[in-house]
Amino acid sequence: MSLLSLAPGCQPVDESVPDAQPVAPAAVEQKAAVAGFAELHHHMFAEAAFGGGWFHGSHTGELTSCDGGMPESSHARVRMDLSNMLNLCPNSGAVNLGGVPILSSLFGVGGAVASEFIGKIEGTEGDTGLHLGRKQVQTQWPRWDTIAHQQAFEGSLRQAHLGGLSLVTVSLVSNGFLCSALPYQNLKRPCDEMADVEVQIQMAKDFDARTSWAEIALSPAHARQIIASGKLAMVLSIEVSKLFGTKDWRSELNRFHALGVRSLQPVHQLDNRFGGAALHNIIFQAAQFLENCHIDYDCGATGAGFTLGFDVDANCRNVKGLTPDGKALVQELMAKGMLIDMAHMSERAVEDTVALTRSNTYYPVYISHGHFREVMNPDVADAEKSTPAHIVRYLRQSGGIFGLRTAHDETRDYTRTPIANSCQGSTRSFAQAYEFGRQGLKVPMAFGADLNGFIQQTRPRFGSYGACSAGFKAEADAQAAQQRVSGPPRLGTDFDTYGLAHVGLLPDLLRDLKQLGANTTGLEGSSEVFLRMWERAQSTRAGMVDAAADIDTGGVAAYVPKATREAQYPQVCGKAYAPNSKVLGEVCRFNEECVSAKCTSSDCGKVTGTCICDGDNDCGAQQYCGWGLNLGACQNKKARGAICSANNECLSNNCRWSYTCG
Q1: pLDDT band with cut points at 50, 70 and 90 for residue 616
Q2: H helix intervals, 249-323
Q3: Where are the beta strands (DSSP E) in 410-557?
Q4: pLDDT tens, 269-294?
Q5: 281, 338, 393, 474: which could form a disulfide with 333 (CB 3.0–4.6 Å)?
């Protein structure tokens, strides 16, 4: 969903001259390392975000099936009358949204029809708007493409904890624009981001009070105690655009610290009084426009030749860095020993933040969820929110950590790993980014999944629910077929066919990554790295941790555009397809897609069908191809005495005159 443009090619970054040499730290007490991996961006209580009007399903109790987005549905839809919102800006008539489908739908059609565009990406129709095929819990949701139904159920979190998750940063989230776009009857309270945060804090405290296996951590020492006792340590963080509202931010920071918050994102989707936000999603460019009515013509991030809301340079980078209040906020966060999360900051805001932290003996900074720019496809890499190598360098110098998004996107091939990038959007694509971070950037990493974060997750490698589908359909079919024959095999869990459907499957993503051949040692021990960063924030520092002069952005293959790849596939009815990629029972469009060369589709594939047998040779050795009511379905051959009509139906290959198997 990113529209920005990057200078051609991603060139190696020259990291040969560090700003200073690392200083050997004074001797400190060596603590026993905690076990387990960390998830740095988890929206456990997001059902209370956006005025409580978007999600179906609670983090507690029982998960129940939904109404599928029927009229007057309680979730997953926007209002019908959003066009009125644009009229708040007197210059809205100068905005041509005709070439921006998602925005023209939202502010034109509205309602359930427009809502369906929100969740629709390559490989899925999504679970927003009218979603009658996504009603049933456990089978139709949650899946990797779930953005409007619960992915952070406490039973799933418990499953993740039993699988090795020992620390989770719980991000208390909301967004006023998204709240204001929802049907009034779906809202549980007026739109107020910080009010939503307070509701979520209380939900976190209630969860802590009634749960024997998880606890809110108030310090790194406390977190170590929690993990050592076999429980899950939860660190509370805040992610909103209107941080602290219009109130005195110093007193509000003190108040939320007293409530247990220990990490903060000074900036989220929109510019605020603390600094500039990184551009990446055109929906929030429209939201920023509604804040200031600004149309920028220095680059075309939103549409042809224009950017809504943000003041950008010719490279579509936000020119706003930290404001005076933003710089004072960073100083106060450091004074309190709190964690500074630079996710969503504009590049100029990052530079301003790093200048302040460097002057404070390299106070640690981290990014809770992000993509490595150099290894991503152009749509993601061109966005300001993607993280370039020089920002990763800051993390390493300060002793920080990077939360790697468990994304659904295409990645470029990282040629220094033997893991083939042969299933786009799956663990294989995640492996390219992970190994680039491990071998090239050499940065400590944890998961930055962003579950319940209005974003899709890692796609499956198997099954019919969008396996390998980040590219285009023919390629997805070919790659999914390859997974069946080349392996590694299925794990035997929901992850195989549903992908990263919920937080409980994070251990399975880690297992799949490991069986593909990735070195997951650092990821498996990421909780310890996070705690060392937190301890560094609260202790005396001597200077830089690591000069990070060994960053190497080489080994990333050039991106081949989808159109070029798709042109290599044969076509039927003007549509590319993958020959012999479908086995019996799988959905197909054309005969040529089926190994059996027989598909029940019609109207040139507009009405899909399934692959069926066209002869006994399409079935197993002990089967025959059925006829009549069983036409096209392989049937088990029959034992002696069973009724038959032909020799091939019998195990003995003998159907007697009495129409029984001999």
Answers
A1: very high
A2: 249-258, 282-292
A3: 445-447
A4: 999 999 999 999 999 999 999 999 99
A5: 338
Give the range with max mean pLDDT: 19-23, 106-110, 614-618. Answer: 614-618
- Cα–Cα distance measured from residue 479 to residue 429, given in angstroms and rounded to the nearest whole number: 12
Structure tokens at 313: 């340079």
- Could you check whether the bond before residue 142 is cis, i.e. omega within 30 degrees of 0? yes
Q: Inform me whether the pLDDT recorded for 102 exceeds 50.
A: yes
Q: What is the pTM of this model?
A: 0.93
For residue range 478-533, list pLDDT tens digits in order.
999 999 998 899 999 999 999 999 999 999 999 999 999 999 999 999 999 999 99
Q: Which of 436, 475, 437, 504 is nearest to 565 (CA)?
A: 475
Return the structure tokens found at 634: 């392989």
Closest CA to 369 of 148, 6, 39: 39
Q: How far is CA 379 from CA 219, 320, 375, 382, 392, in A?
A: 39, 22, 12, 6, 20
What sign results for the dihedral spanned by CA atoms 528, 529, 534, 536? positive
Please state, in angstroms and rounded to a whole number, the distance separating the CA atoms of residues 579 and 569.
9
- Reference 135, options 44, 70, 48; nearest CA is 70
Beta strands in 392-486 (DSSP E): 402-404, 445-447
| Other beta carbons within 10 Å of 7 | 8
Phi, psi dihedrals of residue 340, rounded to the nearest 5°:
-105, 115
**Cα–Cα distance between 573 and 145 in angstroms, integer?**
29
For residue 568, the one-letter residue type is: Q
Residues 211-242 as b or e (16 or more Cβ within 10 Å = b): beebbbbeebeebbebbeeebbbbbbbbbbbb
CA distance 509 to 286: 35
Whether 477 and 426 have beta carbons less than 8 Å apart is answered as no
Please give the average per-residue pLDDT across 3-25, as a whole number: 39
Task: Provide CB contacts within 8 A for 453, sequence distance 6+.
Answer: 41, 43, 46, 171, 173, 369
Short-list 410, 383, 424, 387, CA closest to 551? 387
| Helix (H) or strand (E) run with residue 263 in it | strand 261-264
